[in-house]
Amino acid sequence: MGSLLSFFSEIQFNEQTFFLFVILIASILIVMSLGLFLIGSKSPLKQKLESLRAGEVSHSRAKRHGRLDSTLESLAPIVTSKDTKERESIRHKLMHAGFHDSNALTIFYAVKVFFLVVGVGCAASLYFFAPDFKHLNLSMIGSVALGFFTPNAILERYVDKRQRLVRGGVPDALDLLVVCTESGLGFNAALRRVADELMISHPDFADELDTVCGKIKAGVEMSDAFEDLIERTGVVEITGLVSMLSHASRIGGSLSQTLRDYTEDYRDKRNQEIEEIAAKIPTKMIFPLLLFIWPCFFIVAIGPAMLTLTSTLGN
């Protein structure tokens, strides 16, 4: 016991010891994750339910899926954030990005921990293999920060991309809804037909409309189903459509006329947004004009005269 205490007392805690300790902790976490992944298993009842739910999926694939779910469930208390507000924010972003699985939040935090471990490993590698690097401390901090914030940036990109795709499918869906309702179809049947027609051109928005149709068919109010659509996608531009449809359904107004009026308003709004973007182009062109075009113009226009002037004054 005394020799062990003397050994610990002789250890000098400097930067090299600290990074060795960080690498040790990261290695232990990776080994524990691999161990949980290899030995993770579910109860026989859950395995039977998964096999019945899978249907035509092969037994080996269902077994791998169950092992992954079990591993994520075992890792959930470790990798998931304890902040309730942060978890809700990340869950909404995952929902807006199209990840509706129950373990999506756990997968995101597991990926975030993996990126953080990679960032710390890169920082430790820089410290040990390039100690004479000029900006070593800044590079190490940047590596750790990049590993920590990269999953959030990727998630934000997925959210923006999916919202842009959903927003792009709204005008076509409104035009098809107007045509279907004016041809005699009911609103639910017209919505189902539009979802089927948009499956090729706008699959993301068609999937959301299919979910709305399923909820309406199950007995959910039309306004509530569309409000759930706004919450799932985060596209607030169709809030006016939900209000107009709810008002028309309560007072018994014409849905086709309501859709036509909203389609015209939505088209005018899109035209105004395009005009606003076009009006900002001259202001944005000032900076590349100053940086790239004007210097070249001055070189071509004044350069020969300046060369002649300097040569004459030099003589």
Structure in words:
83% of the residues lie in helices and 0% in strands. The chain has 12 helices and no strands. Helix 9 packs antiparallel against helix 10. It is flat and about 85 Å long. About 3% of the residues have low confidence.
Taking all Cα atoms into account, the compactness measure Rg is 30 Å
Overall pLDDT, averaged?
76
Number of strands: 0
What letter string, H or E per element, gives the SSE order? HHHHHHHHHHHH
| Percent in strands | under 5%
Helix content bin:
over 70%
Structural class: mainly alpha
Largest sheet: none
| Low confidence ranges | 56-64
Organism: Vibrio gallaecicus
Transmembrane segments: 18-39, 104-130, 136-155, 286-307
Pfam families: T2SSF
Subcellular location: Cell membrane
Features:
mainly alpha; T2SS_GspF_sf; cell membrane; Type II secretion system F family protein; membrane; transmembrane; 12 helices; 315 residues
Task: Summarize this entry quickly.
By secondary structure, this protein is an all-alpha fold. It contains twelve helices and no strands. It starts with a helix and ends with a helix.
Summarize the helices and strands and which ones pair or pack.
Blueprint: H1 2-10, H2 15-39, H3 44-54, H4 59-79, H5 84-96, H6 104-129, H7 136-182, H8 187-197, H9 203-217, H10 222-233, H11 239-251, H12 255-314
Helix pairs in contact: 2-4, 2-6, 3-4, 4-6, 6-7, 7-8, 7-12, 8-9, 9-10, 10-11, 11-12
Pfam family, one: T2SSF
Main location: membrane
Subcellular location: Cell membrane
